[in-house]
Structure formats: C-alpha cells, structure tokens
Q: What sequence folds into this?
C-alpha cells in the first residue's frame, strides 16, 4: 500500500442518516377529529369526555400528538382527537388540536418565577375555599387568588367553611365591597341514626355553581374535598385532616379533576347546561409574576375610568404614587357617603395590588 496513488474510485461517502423524503411544514388536517373536554391529566395521559350530553357520550383515554410540541394540555381544555375514540378498555386516542381558551387561570411558584403554570382552562368562576378556623384564614392568599381570577377574566366566589368554629363577618366585610360574592357553610352535628354529618349552606354553593364551570381552590384542610363530595355525590374524593402542630392540612388531591354536576331533580331549563366543578390540589403559595397591574385595575371599572383619563403614564396607583389621580377622585366626592364608598373601593384595589407586589406572607 505504500506509495499507492488514490483515484476517485477509492473515495467512500458515508451514507446520510437523514431520510430521503423532503421536509414539509404541512400537517394533516384531521378533518375527522372529534371534539372533547379534558377532565383529568395523569402523567402524559388525558381523560376526555366526548359527545358531552349527547346520545353517544363516552370517556376516552388519549395521548398528546407529537405535532403539538410543547403545547400543554390542561384540565378544562377543549380538544380535537383522532384515532381509537371508542373508549373501550385498552384503547388510546390522540389529541391533535387544542381549541382557543376562553379563560386561563395561571400562577407562578413565586413572584420572581418567570415560568407560568396553567391551573385550569375555560372556567367561568374561581371558588376560593377558606376555612374560618383550623386552619386559620390567610387573607394574603385570598387577595392573590382574587387578583389571578380578575387577570383571567373570571368571576370570584369566596366560600367560607367551618362557620361553626368562627364568625365570617370580618372576611365578608373585607371582600364583598370589591365585588366578591360570599357563601358560608358550617358543619352540623352528625345524624344520630346514620352517624353522617351534613353541611349547612351547601345549597347556596350549589346554586352559585349551577350551569357554570367552577374551579375550587384552597389550602389543604379547608374542606374543599368535603364540598366536592356534597356537590357531586358518589365522587368519593379523599378528605384529610389538619395537623394540630403545624395548623396545615394534608394534600388529599394530587391533580386537577373536572367533575360534572348532577342534573337537578326539576331537570334543566330549556337551553340550560349542566355545570362542572374542578377540584384542584391544595396549594400553599400563589405567585403572580405574570399579572399586570392594569388587568387588576380593569376589574374596578370606576377606578379604571379615572386612571385612564387622569393618571400619568406608568402610574403604580399605590399610596404615595406621584400625581396619582385616584386620591383626588376620592376627595372630589360630593358627599360623605360617596367619599366613604370611593375610599373603600380604592383601599380594596390597593390591597390587591400590594398583594401582587409583596408576596404571599400572610
């Protein structure tokens, strides 16, 4: 081989590892895809309800199609699926599209975390479940949940549980002035014959969630799963207890699950729809790094109108902000009653904005 001259026949090209098919950005149209609602997510598998309230309603297990990339599928999403949509045991469909979301409830781990976590999609209202005692209520958490709901364009309902242990008056007076509806529940004495305990006030909660998609959010141990079991009998959501030392509850829900409310005894009115409740895992913090103060202000229409017209650009609207017109608007009230009402609204708004900026320390 020494001194041998090489020619073209001695050159060997390594075969390409890429396929010979030309690349294309075109994707299948999936015109035969069926619509469904995501009711649960568990380690890359999605439980869907197809043909909701139709003649062929069925539960289907699905995976996410590769073409969706990193797009997250969350509880409450409306999706299109193809493949084996029979719902038979062992079948697996494929999610190929996520419909545009009407609302998105988000949170971050803390106020410095840039990564948003979607809690649920397409919900109408956020039900903040708070115990009046055991564990003690944390207004900082409630404020931040209210901010997140307003940012998502959702209504807010505050459900105060365990009113048999403490009065709801302070929290009711704190949140009703900012447009938060409040319902109160209390545990009754167990029935002597069956030993089962009832919840007084659950009918008001049932009326508030009827025909709507409602997200139940709260700390562990506040009675959230107990309410779900009362609203959707037979669900069997696990209930926990509060640690006597730490004052905190134990997680009993590990992932968000959408549960459909039963049809009332009187039936649905013409054109009516059955409601849903989405039970979420108990959480201990609610970061708001993704929330813009302007979105919070938009929930206070009277303050928003003044701020847009009279506040300087970049105004934080907090107490002491230079040239903020909201304080002058309070002082311009024509009488004492109007001034008190305006001041209460401004105080409530600033409390929420300060909760956005300060972190959940309460």
A:
């Amino acid at each position: 081989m020494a001194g041998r001259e090489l020619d073209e026949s001695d050159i060997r090209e390594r075969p390409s590892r890429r396929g010979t098919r030309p690349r294309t950005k075109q994707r299948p149209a999936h015109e035969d895809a069926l619509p469904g609602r995501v009711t649960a997510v568990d380690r890359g598998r999605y439980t869907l309800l197809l043909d909701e309230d139709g003649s062929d309603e069925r539960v289907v297990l699905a995976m996410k199609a590769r073409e969706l990339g990193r797009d997250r599928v969350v509880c409450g999403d409306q999706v299109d699926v193809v493949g084996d949509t029979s719902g038979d045991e062992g079948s697996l469909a494929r999610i190929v599209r996520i419909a545009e979301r009407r609302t998105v409830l988000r949170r971050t781990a803390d106020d410095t975390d840039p990564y948003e976590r979607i809690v649920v999609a397409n919900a109408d209202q956020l039900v903040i479940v708070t115990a009046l005692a055991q564990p003690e209520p944390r207004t900082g958490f409630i404020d931040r949940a209210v901010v997140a709901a307003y940012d998502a364009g959702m209504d807010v309902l505050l459900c105060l549980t365990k009113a048999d242990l403490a009065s709801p008056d302070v929290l009711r007076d704190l949140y009703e002035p900012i447009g938060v509806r409040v319902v109160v529940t209390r545990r009754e004495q167990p029935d002597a014959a069956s030993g089962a305990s009832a919840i007084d006030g659950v009918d008001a909660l049932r009326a508030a969630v009827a025909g709507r998609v409602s997200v139940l959010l709260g700390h562990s141990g506040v009675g959230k799963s107990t309410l779900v079991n009362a609203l959707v009998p037979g669900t069997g959501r696990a209930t926990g207890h509060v640690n006597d030392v730490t004052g905190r509850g134990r997680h009993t829900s590990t992932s968000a699950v959408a549960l459909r409310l039963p049809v009332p005894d009187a039936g649905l009115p013409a054109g009516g729809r059955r409601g849903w409740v989405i039970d979420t895992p108990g959480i201990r913090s609610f970061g708001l790094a993704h929330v813009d103060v302007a979105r919070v202000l938009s929930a206070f229409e009277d303050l928003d109108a003044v701020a847009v017209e009279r506040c300087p650009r970049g105004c934080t609207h907090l107490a002491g902000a230079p040239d903020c017109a909201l304080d002058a608007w309070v002082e311009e009230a024509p009488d004492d009653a109007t001034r008190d009402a305006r001041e209460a609204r401004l105080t409530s708004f600033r409390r929420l904005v300060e909760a956005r900026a300060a972190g959940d320390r309460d």
